[in-house]
Design brief:
InterPro entries: AsnC-type_HTH_dom, Dimeric_a/b-barrel, Tscrpt_reg_AsnC-like, Tscrpt_reg_AsnC/Lrp_C, WH-like_DNA-bd_sf, WH_DNA-bd_sf. The chain is α+β, with helices and mostly antiparallel strands. It contains five helices and four strands; from the N terminus they run αααβαββαβ. It has a four-stranded antiparallel sheet with strand order 2-3-1-4, covered by helices on one side. Helix 2 crosses helix 3 (about 35-45).
Length: about 150
């Protein structure tokens, strides 16, 4: 727990994680602070990088991206420069929602959201089959998402 965050900061963060569309007036009332104080705190939390960005969470199946894949990727060469090249490759791929370097086991775990199996196949060819440094890929396809949260306990 970050000691520089006080109770008001934590109330603001929890409220915004639940619903970032609150107006400053609504947020201030919810966290029991003045509007001016709340505005200053949100600005500071944003400037300090605690609040990274505010987004809308979209239902993938409602926008034609109903197939979720969790992908383990192992590289032939694991040096930092090789990992950075792979990370740059997936950073440019909109269907890759998350990319993690992991240990032990594979080098990366990706969270991928695509329309269907044909779209996954095309992505797999671009990101994995066409890359000389990709040694192994193991993909798990989600059949049910029983939990999805974006909030971090603060």
């Amino acid at each position: 727990m970050d000691p520089t965050l006080d109770g008001l900061d934590r109330r603001i963060l929890n409220a915004l994680q639940a619903d970032a569309s609150y107006t400053n007036q609504q947020l201030a009332a919810l966290v029991h602070a003045s509007a001016a104080t709340c505005l200053r705190r949100v600005k500071r939390l944003t400037d300090d990088g605690v609040i990274m960005r505010q987004v809308a969470i979209v239902a993938p199946e409602k926008v034609g991206a109903g197939l979720t894949a969790l992908v383990e990727v192992t590289l032939d060469h694991q040096g930092d420069e090789h990992q950075l090249v792979f990370e740059a490759l997936v950073a440019n791929e909109a269907s890759v929602l998350q990319c993690y370097r992991v240990s032990p086991g594979p080098d990366f775990v990706l969270v991928v959201q695509v329309a269907d199996m044909a779209a996954y196949h095309a992505l797999a060819h671009r990101l994995f089959a066409a890359q000389k440094n990709v040694r192994n890929v193991k993909t798990y396809f989600s059949i049910l998402r029983s939990k999805f949260e974006t909030n971090i306990a603060v």
